[in-house]
Specification:
Length: 461
């Protein structure tokens, strides 16, 4: 067995989940700190006064939303590769691994080039559509311009992480996201606090850190008998594997894209409330990304372990993993819910000292925080479904939640009822509750037990 492989269709379910999740959890926490660092440092050092710091925070929030969409789209395709690799290992089909790895890496490099070119051409139109406040327009433009040049590194890192996690290795991605995180923080302090470059400096630090993590990761795994040698001639797309990756990953990719677009719509709505509101929602968003990362780590672990067990026809073990994941994730969500309800001002003060930003953030937190109690169920149960290849179902529920529930709810409560940021925040738990009802129905029906990946592989063969 290759040293990167770890077959989790055997042994203790709890032990597998914990041992696989802990590095993944640590990796996602570090990744969250990585994402939060820009906002924290810009909010505290990104200008000579609180007004300029708020403008920089708003710029990081708005510019970051665009690259967030691209990242989420890629994560969907990466999930397709993770599920495929996990099921191939569970079914002992290692001959297919190289083809999957080659295909996903080549595909994402090509997509990175296309997305970067298109976004650099149309970035001004995007910022206008988002109703970017005039005070933060320049900062948003500068942040977005720089981060777009680093899209290829975002794609490459997510592809490598997805491949390794599908093989059961959650430690290697952790090592290199840790390097990237601390590099980013150091460079943020140099460029933002030292050279007073605001959002531009934060973006530059991010791109350099991402590039470094990818280069180090490739060097490391090449020296350890990895399935792929990274020679130019090895970058190929195999039609059969591409078809399977798209079949499994496209629904998740589309779902992530649509959900992210709904957040862009909400960003535009919040921007109409002013630059302080934009900065406040950005700060809350960064904090929530920190909270959701552990829950995401658990749910992704459920997906990977479930994929291997479903591939080995061990549905009972897949269900056990899901139950454990829900229990652990809910404890995490409930803990942060209590912290947010008791200390909202203290949390927001970490991101900056502007009184109006903090006031707006407390209002938004007051309703948004209830989402922390619902998300753990959605993420982990969906993780079980994705492990069996039911990404189309996840696409439908994701679209229903974000487009048909969240956006209208935010608009009705925030604009029609004139509840402002409290109304916009209320949209999240309302949408999640509706989504959970649908997911529970699919779970109870038992239709999730059909192995979509197994059927797809048989059709291709």
């Amino acid at each position: 067995m290759n040293k990167f492989e770890n077959n989790m269709s055997q042994g203790s379910v709890l032990k597998n989940l914990v041992l696989f999740s802990l590095p993944f959890l640590a990796s996602n926490l570090i990744q969250s700190l990585y994402n939060v660092a820009d906002m924290l440092i810009v909010g505290n050092f990104g200008g000579v006064d609180s007004a300029s710091r708020v403008n920089s925070m708003s710029g990081v929030n708005i510019g970051g939303q665009v690259t967030f969409i691209l990242t989420n789209i890629v994560i969907g395709f990466c999930m397709g590769a993770t599920v495929l690799i996990g099921q191939y290992i569970g079914a002992q089909k290692r001959d297919e691994l190289k083809k999957v790895i080659s295909t996903i890496l080549t595909m994402l490099i090509a997509l990175a080039a296309i997305f970067t070119t298109l976004m650099l051409i149309f970035k001004r139109y995007v910022l206008d559509l988002l109703q970017t406040p005039p005070e933060s327009y320049l900062e948003s433009d500068r942040y977005l311009s720089v981060t777009l040049t680093g899209v290829i590194f975002i794609f490459a890192y997510n592809a490598l992480s997805a491949i390794l996690r599908g093989m059961g290795d959650s430690k290697t991605p952790f090592y290199f996201v840790t390097v990237a995180c601390f590099t980013n923080i150091v460079l943020d302090l140099i460029f933002v606090a030292g050279f007073d470059q605001g959002a531009f400096g934060a973006a530059l630090a991010t791109v350099i850190a991402q590039a470094l993590s990818v280069v180090l990761c490739v060097i490391y795994i090449k020296k350890r008998n990895f399935q792929f040698d990274f020679k130019l001639s090895s970058f190929k797309i195999y039609k059969d594997q591409l078809s399977l990756i798209v079949k499994i990953g496209l629904p998740t990719s589309v779902q992530n894209g649509i959900v992210s677009l709904s957040f862009l719509f909400l960003t535009g709505m919040v921007n109409t409330f002013g630059v302080a509101a934009s900065a406040a929602v950005g700060a809350v968003g960064k904090f929530n990304s920190f909270v959701f990362m552990p829950i995401t780590a658990i749910s992704s672990s459920v997906s990977t372990i479930s994929a291997q067990n479903i591939g080995a026809n061990r549905l009972d073990r897949a269900v056990s993993v899901c139950k454990l994941g829900v229990g652990i994730s809910f404890c995490i969500g409930a803990l942060f819910f209590v912290i947010v309800r008791i200390f909202p001002e203290a949390i927001l003060s970490i991101f900056g000292d502007d009184a109006k930003m903090i006031e707006n953030g407390i209002i938004y937190f007051s309703t948004f925080s209830f989402d922390l109690l619902i998300i753990p169920f959605i993420f982990c149960i969906n993780g079980l479904f994705i492990g069996g290849g039911h990404t189309l179902f996840s696409l439908v529920t994701g679209m229903f939640s974000s487009v048909l529930l969240r956006v209208p709810a935010c608009y009705i409560f925030g604009i029609v009822f004139d509840w402002g940021l409290a109304g916009v925040g209320m949209g999240a738990p309302v949408a999640s509750a509706g989504s959970l009802l649908i997911i529970t129905g699919f779970l109870v029906s038992g239709r999730w037990k059909q192995n979509v990946v197994h059927n797809a592989i048989n059709i291709e063969m």
